[in-house]
Amino acid sequence: MMQASSIFDWLVTSPWANLMNGPEWAFPVVQSIHFIGFALSIGTVAIVDLRLLGIGMRRQTAAQLAADLAPWTVSGFAVMLITGFLMFSADAARYHVNPSFQFKMICLAAALLFHFTLHRKATGIPNSPLAAKLAGGVSLLLWTAVVAGGRMIAFV
Amino acid sequence: MVIHPLLEWIESTDLSTTIREGALPYPIIGGFHLLGIALFGGMILMTDLRLLGWAMQRRLVSDIVQQSRPWKRIGFVLVVATGLLLTWAEPLKLYRSPSFWVKMALLLLVGVHAMIFRRSVYANTAKLDEAITARAKWAAALSLVLWAGLIVSGRLIAFDA
């Protein structure tokens, strides 16, 4: 069996990690794409959340908005996860023990799970103000925690 | 030079020292800056994609532009306010950073973009519901480029040292 730390050691020496650690501009450029990816995904999730909370985009139903925005949200997720993995690979041995990183990953797992289960269900139920508001609020909170945890990685 | 003493004075203020040297203020303010970008940059992105005819095509342009406007304004205030605090914390470092000046130039262009296109595009959405003009598509494409540039140059500031 592989030891837990060895897979991270291996990641750091992977070709894509070498690329990330190669030219000076590689990391900031990938990080910028990471930002654009989560602006797209979290931004579109937030539009649905604000509708669920009943404080934005009220001329459409949450279900209509969710259906329209889903491809963009999922594309944003993909960009965010791929670039996130690349950045993680660049310094995996250090990131995986960083408390802020661990916090971020737990929140990310919870946010993604919530997004594709209860959140999706809540956008489909008409006339369910309490459940809808709860889903919108929890979603905003989880994604906020993901971003905040990410920002803290560099500082702990 | 009058600039340097001014920047040194800013760095010596309590507010600047607290943000720069405290453990929590800088990442927290930075976190809100990012959240502002995520929540409201996302809405600008969707508006631009709608104008280009790539997203939410079943919805009226006027619906999207009008309903997202208050949130974009709140987001703008959040991003600018946190951005000012972050700038206040390290004016000398930023003054020397080329990426910072690229970002400020792009920000200026965002203002110019608004002045050029506000009347014909963003305040003229009823017309765009009938057909999206070439001018509106230009406005959206330029807006996407400006926003991507803002994010990239902003991120590069940390790497200018």
Describe this structure in words.
- The complex is a heterodimer of chains A (156) and B (161).
- Chain A has 156 residues and is an all-alpha fold.
- Chain A has one domain (7-155).
- Chain A is 81% helix and 0% strand.
- Chain A contains seven helices and no strands.
- In chain A, helix 3 (26-52) runs antiparallel to helix 4, helix 3 (26-52) runs antiparallel to helix 7 (129-152) and helix 6 (99-124) packs antiparallel against helix 7 (129-152).
- Chain A is elongated.
- The two termini of chain A are 31 Å apart.
- In chain A, 38% of the residues are buried.
- With 161 residues, chain B is mainly α.
- Chain B has one domain.
- Chain B has helices at residues 3-12, 14-21, 25-51, 61-89, 91-96, 98-122, 125-130, 134-157.
- The model of chain B has no long low-confidence stretch (mean pLDDT 91).
Task: Give me some keywords for this one.
heterodimer, A: 156 residues, mainly alpha, 0% strand, B: 161 residues, 8 helices, elongated
Secondary structure: elements and pairs:
The complex is a heterodimer of chains A (156) and B (161).
Chain A: H1 4-12, H2 15-21, H3 26-52, H4 62-90, H5 92-95, H6 99-124, H7 129-152
Chain B: H1 3-12, H2 14-21, H3 25-51, H4 61-89, H5 91-96, H6 98-122, H7 125-130, H8 134-157
Helix pairs in contact in B: 2-4, 3-4, 3-8, 6-8
